[in-house]
Amino acid sequence: MLIVTDSRPRVDANQILGRELVEQIAHHTHHYPQKRAAVLDALKAVQKVHGWVNDTQLAAVASLLDMAVADVEGVATFYNRIYRQSVGRHVILVCDSIACFLTGYEELAGELQAELGVEFGQTTADQRFTLLPIVCLGNCDKGPSLMIDEDTHGPIKPGQIKALLESYA
After folding, report:
1. Chain Cα centroid distance, residue 94
2. Which of 39, 55, 107, 135 has its CA 20 to 30 A from that of 72?
3. How far apart are CA 46 and CA 88, in angstroms?
4. Residue 103 and residue 154 in one domain
5. pLDDT higher than threshold 80 for residue 3
């Protein structure tokens, strides 16, 4: 049950997130002079456990950090690596910056979409992969590049996609 007073939620974070995750978030708050500064660490912790951050979990984080839900939502939506909707077991981020665009982004994107059978922003039917664009991976000298989970790959040549995807069971 969510009771909002003065834009600050009062929820049972232990019930929503679990005691272990609440303790982990509390640990993060000790690294900052104000506990609200741990908001990104808290969102990352929730996402690591659940794969994404839903509205109820976001409200629990807000409650733990004594923040307005809108402020936590602002942080969550600002960072493109905090997922606010369900994603596949593996997230593929395809760099669409100018360096990658000039070195084969369109061919890479087309091959990925054909192999996965999804468009950008979609998840495969088996929930294995979610395909997303990203502005830059900082791998400009190895374009075109992509990132699967935390692994950066590049340059990716035509024909390498199938084998690369198979390595992420």
Report:
1. 13
2. 135
3. 16
4. yes
5. no
What is the extent of the structural domain holding 51?
3-78
In terms of DSSP bridges, do strands 90-95 and 129-134 run parallel, antiparallel, or are they unpaired? Answer: parallel
Give the span between the Cα atoms of 57 and 52, in whole angstroms.
9
Q: Whose structure tokens read 């109820």?
A: 56
Over residues 18-60, the pLDDT tens digits come to: 999 999 999 999 999 999 999 999 999 999 999 999 999 999 9
Residue 22: exposure state from Cβ atoms within 10 A (0-12, 13-18, ≥19): buried
Structural domain includes residue 84: no
pLDDT, tens only, 59-70: 999 999 999 999
How far apart (Å, rounded) are the C-alpha atoms in residues 24 and 134?
29
Name the helix (H) or strand (E) containing 126.
none
Count of domains for the chain: 2
Structure tokens at 39: 């908001």
- Burial (Cβ within 10 Å: 0-12, 13-18, ≥19) of residue 17: buried
Contacts of 44 by beta carbon, 8 Å cutoff, 6+ apart: 82
